[in-house]
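Field log, afternoon session.

UNIT: design team B
ACTIVITY: writing a sequence onto a fixed backbone
BACKBONE:
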């Protein structure tokens, strides 16, 4: 797929602010600071379209990006940011749940985990949650530049075991620094959209 156009069409904290539910959507989920916004920028090849930050908790809203007028990538706020106050993290749960519960166009979630660490309890909870909604199946291991080739297999193993991935689940290493892996993810997104367009929706 060649991305000709990518634009931020809505920034939402509540349903009334969502764009119309009339297009396939792929959501990016993951711990705060794992690299969701960076990966999105690399995918669309527009530096700075999504705001990136060294300090966690940068994205606090649900950001809808429309790609080629054909589908959307939805950049969700990260979870597990310890410094968030209780009321903010409660609000986060409601915001995410409100989105997952109501979106007919939501085709799949891409869950990002840091390649260097075993997925956290929150990551595991999130993956099980996605499974419940049948949105599981694509995991991206971010910051692949931080591990050596020889460490890669062990890191993969830890991620697979901790999240309890099955053979058909995709685990894709990416590095926004080295600009690698994003094409594999795009190919996965492409085939999802292809399959989705063949589903006749009620
Ligand atoms: P929130 O918006 O807080 O949920 O974070 P996020 O998941 O959107 O993370 P973001 O893209 O803002 O990146 C967080 C930090 O990780 C930034 O300092 C990025 O430069 C860095 N980062 C992201 N991807 C990579 C990568 O592939 N390699 C390395 N080395 N650093 C990365
Ligand atoms: Mg972000």
């Amino acid at each position: 797929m060649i991305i000709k156009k990518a634009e931020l069409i809505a920034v939402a904290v509540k349903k009334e602010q969502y764009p119309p539910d009339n297009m396939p959507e792929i959501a990016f989920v993951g711990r705060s600071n794992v690299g969701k916004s960076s990966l999105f920028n690399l995918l669309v090849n527009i530096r700075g379209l999504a705001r990136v930050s060294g300090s966690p908790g940068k994205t606090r809203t649900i950001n809808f990006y429309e790609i080629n007028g054909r589908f959307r990538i939805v950049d969700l706020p990260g979870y597990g940011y310890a410094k968030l106050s209780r009321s903010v993290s409660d609000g986060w749960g409601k915001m995410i749940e409100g989105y997952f519960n109501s979106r007919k166009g939501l085709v799949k979630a891409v869950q990002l985990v840091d390649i260097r660490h075993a997925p956290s309890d929150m990551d595991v909870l999130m993956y099980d949650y996605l499974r419940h909604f049948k949105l599981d199946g694509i995991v991206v291991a971010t910051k692949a530049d931080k591990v050596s080739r020889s460490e890669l297999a062990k890191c993969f193993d830890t991620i697979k075991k901790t999240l309890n991935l099955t053979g058909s689940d995709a685990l894709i290493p990416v590095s926004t620094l080295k600009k690698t892996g994003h094409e594999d993810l795009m190919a996965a997104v492409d085939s999802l959209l292809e399959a989705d367009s063949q589903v006749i929706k009620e």
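LOG NOTE: The chain has one domain: 6-13+20-196.
NEXT ACTIVITY: expression trials, pending approval
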